[in-house]
Amino acid sequence: MKTTLMTMAAIAAVDARMGFGQCPAVDSESNFDMSRHEGKWFEQQRDKLFTFEMGQECGTQIYRANAAGNYDLYFRAEIPMMFGQYVGVNGEMSQCGQIPTSEGSCMATMNGGDKKSPIKILATDYDNWSVLYACMDMVGGDLMYANWLSISTRTNAPISEEHLMAAHAAIRAQLPLFDLSNWAMYNTTQGRSCQYDWNIWETKTF
Predict the structure, then answer these.
(1) Is the Cβ–Cβ distance between 60 and 43 less than 8 Å?
(2) Which of the chain's termini has less CB crowding within 10 Å, N or C?
(3) What is the four-CA torsion angle of 19, 21, 22, 26, rounded to 10 degrees?
(4) 12 conformational bin, left if phi > 0, alpha if psi -120 to 50, beta if neither
(5) How confident is the model at residue 136 (pLDDT cuts 50, 70, 90)?
(6) Are strands 17-20 and 85-94 parallel, antiparallel or unpaired?
(7) CB–CB of 106/38 below 8 Å?
């Protein structure tokens, strides 16, 4: 189901980028401003090695301020392996910009749960592109880790070379060994073939 999009909450992917030792030290965007980051985002590129995303296309993220002073979120995508169904997961983000950048950008609860987990926006220019990053220590937390990332834009048009290079530069600044080649990264389908719906805020499963 769409929880595959929520690797930032819990990566269960043995096929994400693997490494030995603990998760690399990666800071989120400094002075992160969720009020500038809220709104619609369209996934443009993601880690091809993260097979648990099941070939998803038309991936979107939307964030809005809520009455509690936090931010609602909804992540949605089409899953071709499930006969083209669109599924999604909701959540609520809090403490945005208030936790150490080494931990994340905000804390989030997913799908009505109580457990808070960090969501990390590795870098963004707020107006054009944003990099979502996740890493999870595995095998006891000291021996191995799995990490993953995706790049999103404000429109469903293909990402410009300028914005893609800016996002890649921000990634390489902290993860110089992360393979960003065409072999390792997947370009997500967006555009006319996608059925966008920005009015869904409840989790939809198979």
Answers:
(1) yes
(2) C
(3) -60
(4) alpha
(5) confident
(6) unpaired
(7) no
| Cβ-contact 133, 148 below 8 angstroms | yes
* Total residues found in the chain within this entry: 206
Q: Are 41 and 149 in contact (CB under 8 A)?
A: no
CA distance 115 to 109: 6
Q: What is the pLDDT of residues 68-85, one digit of tens each?
A: 999 999 999 998 877 788
Res. 164: pLDDT tops 70: yes
pLDDT of residue 206: 52
What pLDDT, on a 0 to 100 scale, did the predictor assign at position 13?
Answer: 34
